[in-house]
Amino acid sequence: MSTPCTSPDERPDALGDRRPPTRGSFRDRVRRKPGIGPLWRVAVFLLGLLSIATGAALIVLPGPLTIPPVVLGLWIWSTEFEWAHRFFARAREHGKDAWDHARAHRVTSSVVTGGGLVMAFAAVWATSRYHLVDQGMAYVGLR
Fold first, then answer.
1. How is 123-142 classified by DSSP, letter by letter?
2. Cα distance between residue 78 and residue 112, in whole Å
3. Angle CA(10)–CA(31)–CA(76) in degrees, nearest 5?
4. pLDDT band at 2; cut points 50, 70, 90
5. What residue segments make up the domains of the chain, in order of their start?
6. Which residue pairs from 121-130 have beta carbons closer than 8 angstroms and sit at least 24 positions apart in sequence?
7. Considering the chain, what is the average pLDDT of its residues?
8. N or C end of the chain: smaller count of CB under 10 Å?
9. pLDDT value at position 58?
């Protein structure tokens, strides 16, 4: 059984455990100001959520466009939340492994990436050329 925290600064809030700041850093100074600390944490959470939501919205586009905003959102969260820091560290390790694999297999990685770009270009071209969005909307009954 764990001992309860007595200091309000030690208790996790609804957003999770706090990531310990470096003494004297900007985050440390912000957290020490009454009323600003919780506002700062909510702002960091919302900024990270916006970035991840942007990445999720980009899922409809082919290619690697979803990855950068999601990673940025995780990094933003990891500056303030311990759970996000652990998750981001794992994601970084997987990214390094993927990069090492891509460097070891340059031809295969190039062919897959090039093929994906060609397919994305073909999809955009076909959608524009054959008015596929308009046809889809008419098929569903929206026009």
1. HHHHHHHTTHHHHHHHHHT-
2. 31
3. 95
4. very low
5. 1-104, 107-143
6. 123/62
7. 83
8. N
9. 84
- Packing angle, helices 106-129 and 132-140, rounded to 10: 60
Q: What is the pLDDT of residue 6?
A: 45
The per-residue pLDDT for 50 is 96
**Beta-ladder partners of 119:** none
Residue 89, C-beta contacts closer than 8 angstroms, at least 6 positions apart: 78
- Is 0.70 topped by the overall pTM? no
Please tell me the distance from the alpha carbon of residue 84 to that of residue 87, in angstroms, as a whole number. Answer: 5
Helices (H), the chain: 26-32, 36-57, 67-78, 82-104, 106-129, 132-140
Look-up of token digits 């990891």: 78
Which of 58, 77, 93 has the alpha carbon at shortest distance from 15? 77
pLDDT of residue 101: 92
